[in-house]
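Example record

The entry below shows one chain as it appears in the dataset: sequence first, then structure tokens.
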Amino acid sequence: VLAQMFCTLEQQPGPVGFYSGKVQDGLQLDPITNYSRILIPALVEQPNARLIYLTKSAAIDNFLDMASCRHVVMTWSLNADEIVRTMERGTASLRERLTAAARCKEAGYEVRRQHTMSCLSRRWLSGPRR
């Protein structure tokens, strides 16, 4: 994978984004695979590389002690608590996601959020607005 990434970077004159999380959660398996500890240091010397994670996880421990975060964008998918509980089972709660995002921001990462409307229900419409 790294060889393909470097080849792409050599061929592109401008910024190149590599996405982790478009098909499956970009962080869910990171505590097991430690893949971020391979990818991020490998891209430090690549000025046009951007590694963009999309996640519903709070598994950020591998990221907090890495000094090489200027090419990494951490993006959390956010939904209402009810949607997280009923349709995103097995993922971090909304509060856990927001806490993880704040910790990454404090560590120097660029942090983004993605609001995905999973479904619209009458209960959601009448629920609390926070």
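Notes for this example: The chain has a mean pLDDT of 87. The beta strands are 16-20, 49-55, 72-78, 110-115.
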